[in-house]
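hiii so my PI (J.) wants the whole complex modelled not just the main chain, which honestly fair. so below is everything: two entries, each one labled with what it is. i double checked the lines twice but i was tired so who knows lol
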Amino acid sequence: MSYTTAINDDAHHHHNPTGWRRWLFSTNHKDIGTLYLLFALSMLFMGGASAMLIRAELFQPGIQLLDPDLYNNLVTNHALLMIFGAVMPAAAGLANWMIPLMIGAPDMALPRMNNLSFWILPAAGTMLILSFVVPFFPGGGSQINTGWTLYPPLSVQVGMSMDFLIFAIHLLGISSVLASINIIVTLLNMRAPGMTLMKMPMFCWTWLVTAFLLILVVPVLAGGVTMLLFDRHFGTSFFDAAGGGDPVLFQHLFWFFGHPEVYVLLLPSIGVLSHVIPTFSRKPLFGYKSMVGAMIAVATIGMVVWAHHQYTIGMSLGAVSYFMIGTIIISIPVGLMIFNFIATMWRGAMTFETPMLFAVAIIMMFTFGGLSGVMLAVVPADMQYHDSMFVVAHFHYVLMPGAVFGLFAGVFYWLPKWTGHMYDEKLAKIFFWVNVIGFNLTFFPQHFLGLAGMPRRIIDYNVMFTEFNVVSSIGAMIFGFSHLLLLYIVIKTIRGGEKATAQVWEGAKGLEWEVPSPPPFHTWETPPSIKQEQQ
Amino acid sequence: MSSTDQHTTYFIPDPSPWPIIGMVSLLVTLFGAVLAMNGVVVGKFIVFGGLLLFAYLLFGWFRDVISENLSDKYNAQVDRSFRMGMFWFIASEVFFFLAFFGALFYIRNIALPWLGGEGYLGATKEILYNQFESAWPSHGPGQLGGEFIPMGAWGIPAINTFLLLSSGATITWAHWGLKQDNQKTLVRGLMATIALGLLFVAFQAYEYIHAYEALNLTLQSGVYGSTFYMLTGFHGFHVTMGAIMLMAILGRSMKGHFSAHNHFAFEAVAWYWHFVDVVWLGLFIFVYWF
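here's the output for the full assembly
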């Protein structure tokens, strides 16, 4: 059916809300998606600012700008802002915008709850920022110098800012669980007639698996930080050996959440790639079924390998062997996804618009991060790498390409759909190159720093590490400031530009490309019929 | 998803102020809680204000949903969304409890034996706590909280098991009545369930008082006290919430809101009630009995 008849059918209802009510009281998936994305963008800049302060401090040995507690507080804040403030909300924003369009649904299944899960985020962000600023006030207690992992006993000793942080994590958890419930219900219950699960677009599949993971692991983190709160204020001894508890217990609870969280950050970007690569290769995705299977395998195995973050705590030989083997096995389904992407490009009529550039960069750099991950998974080797800059380099190579570049690719890919304007391709390509070169300049030298023995989360370092740190810091400044260009491109595209067609990209397939760009306030109020050839 | 016709009546709610009120109430409550825990006196009042706002939110949001339901705005698809939503919410709750059960198992089977000198980490005992013998219940090598008597399984906890299991039966009886459009059975079944639930909470409160006064078993009694109160406390909190939900459902049943074909709210509460029931069985076996 053509889209125009569908909207005419429904022209009778709705007065579209306007003004501040439109945003605060919204029940519209597109508006809520926009709110998510704007929130994520603002948090990206706050998290980035803290990272640049860290790198500025590390520009030369000695202590110049910050004091050690403030330095570690910035490390903590950088991680939490980026993971919970930038990447997860941005992925949720893409989900909100695209899932209903892709499956031919008029909106998310539970629109009011959708708005609640967004609006909890600014509350959580407020608590997070309070946890950072409170120590600067008289009586505010000490700074959070634990890193984002919040290991006791240090986290039991920190002042009241830790309580703000614990409650921020509770709020973020509530938000994620509600958003995940909504996404699962939408995907299981709102698909257009004829769209079976195995015809669902890949981005929807990745979010379905992500949402399952979140529902299973986030409550465990909530339980863990609740125990921390009780140990701090009510005299329990979960993490106190004198009372028969064990600080390592917290590590297990944290990483039971923390490791699947890596896949929570990664999978939505894999979903974006599964659309970007076929579009710009002008070929359908290679191995749809195997992608779905690989993803479920990654998520399932990913749930039971958490303790590879804790090899040095003194687990039994049997336990570390199990966690090592499980971790290495994950590289098989992940490798399968990568090979599927490469096979999709094979003999395709490829063009390299910005989303595709990011996609290619992801395949190369994420694979690199994955390989250093296999190194870290090996117990005897990890004993050497543990808590060194090598680990920092590894997870930034996983999370920047694996999560953030995927989100950038998604933003450039769908920005014309959202705004109705093409973005400035030339500027976007400049952004891509500056961004990717800045990224590699920042993190590649950190591998060598780590292998040479530079520990992480310490404000000062031995003078022999100076040169690589200088390179890394210069790279970080390039990388950090390049995001201002992103901001400029996004604002420019929102304000105007070449009109985008409904299909936007020549090779783009799927329901989301059948609605006009920008889509009207309400879409698919009459479900589309699913063509047979659609994947 | 059988026919296209059904889909022409998609339901999308109007813009609603409740989510934003929910955000404000959560922020105020938690902000107050941080202040209260760090000895700022006004904290308590801020928490109280936040909770009042939260109660107002629940009341208002559910009032909207109920009136939408009564004016027949919902179709089978919305009903299915609600059911799935409740199911996954309960799944997330299961994993919340799993964190505490996991902590209990870890401490009993791994952490305490290590402290007691077992395994290759047994050196801890030689260096730190060479007087300590690992056993359960334990308040650790530091004997935190002083000597205590652990809670036995076959007194109040056994009675409570009986009460909760019976309440599972009575709510099924109410459901059975509802399915036959028999309002009298529905109301009686719900009343019995609420009574059993409240009785459970009362017994639990008595048990806590008894533990504190006669057994010297407190929240500070090492890791036994920590796990005991944390697990039973969160469960008791869930039973209380469940009882409040049952009361709301009872009120709606008396007003005749439910029919044999339209009673999602009743089923959601019933599922929730069975969930707290199952958690209790886990508690009875692993916290009280063994």
